[in-house]
Amino acid sequence: MTIPKLSLKELNLMNRSSLMESLGIEYLEVKEGYVKARMPVDTRTIQPVANILHGGASLALAETIGSLGSILMVDADYFDVRGAQISANHVRPATSGYVTGEARIIYQGNNTHLWNIDIRNENGELVSTARLTNFIIPKLRRKS
Fold it and tell me: How far is CA 92 from the centre of its chain?
């Protein structure tokens, strides 16, 4: 499958029946080394007691867009992308509307990619910032 040739609409359709669909994640812009997506702050993504965006939902958004970014940068016929490590700092609560995540590659090696992901509220204020490391793993090819 050559993912870089898929349209934004087709990439969003790939999220059907997945965590991304459950959380309402929608890709907005995709280019090499950069992915932008949004996610609603609603009953699917908030903490049950505080009614603010759940940190785990923020991490799911961050890992989703950083991983897609890596997938777009490798030949998906020959390589798999696997998240190796993610960390985040949550600096401000989000209580309604949408948050938007922007993932930017900061290191592209042969075996690892490092991404910085900033998540902002509708006012453009930083809600969370994350770092994601992805492993780039060669697919095992079966001999015919």
Answer: 19
Please say if the pLDDT value at position 4 is more than 80: no
Which domains occur in the chain, in start order? Answer: 3-138 (3.10.129.10)
> Does the pLDDT value for residue 141 go beyond 70?
yes
All residues at 6 or more sequence positions from 78 whose CB lies less than 8 Å from its CB, including other chains? 138, 139
3-state helix, strand, coil in the chain (%, to 5): 25, 40, 35
The C-alpha atoms of residue 106 and residue 108 are separated, in whole angstroms, by: 7
- Is 26 catalytic? The answer is no
Active-site residue, from 63, 102, 122, 125: 63
In this prediction, residues 86-110 reach a mean pLDDT of 98
Question: How does 41-54 read in b/e, with b if 16+ C-beta sit within 10 Å?
Answer: beeebbeeeeebbb
Two tokens, residue 28: 């907005």
Cα(121)–Cα(105) distance, integer angstroms: 21
Specify the pTM: 0.93
